[in-house]
Amino acid sequence: LYYMGRIKATQLEYSEAYQRLMMAARKAPQGYAFGFTRMVHKLAVIVQLLMGDIPERSLFNQVELRDALRPYLALTQAVRNG
């Protein structure tokens, strides 16, 4: 699902890519595989921004994702502020 999401994002089919990435995030093993989870959420944030949506703030406050998504939070804040 993750790779299908990447392919759809490359093909500019953002809504399909976002759906695939969220399915991959839900099906990822809980409690470990943090690297995979980080990759999925990084790409999902970018796809959301490309669709014109603002990612939820709670995503950036998750303990295991906080450091990895810090640059994406700054990008999201810049998009939000215009």
Spell out the blueprint of helices and strands.
Layout (H helix, E strand, L loop, with lengths): L1 H9 L3 H14 L6 H18 L5 H4 L9 H12 L1
Helix pairs in contact: 1-2, 2-3
Q: Could you describe the 3D structure shown?
A:
By secondary structure, the chain is mainly alpha-helical. Helices cover 70% and strands 0% of the residues. The chain has five helices and no strands. The radius of gyration is 12 Å and the shape is flat. The model has no long low-confidence stretch (mean pLDDT 92).
Gyration radius from CA atoms, angstroms: 12 Å
Topology pattern, helix = H, strand = E: HHHHH
- Number of strand segments: 0
- Shape annotation: flat
Report the span from N to C terminus.
32 Å
Q: Biggest sheet: strands, sense, closure?
A: none
Please tell me the overall pLDDT.
92
Poorly predicted regions are none
Contiguous helical run count: 5
Q: Helix content range of the residues, please?
A: 55-70%
Roughly what fraction of the amino acids lie in strands? under 5%
The assigned structural class equals mainly alpha
Quaternary status = single chain
What attributes characterize this protein structure?
mainly alpha, 82 residues, flat, 5 helices
Short note summarizing the structure:
This protein is mainly α and 82 residues long. The protein is built from five helices and no strands.
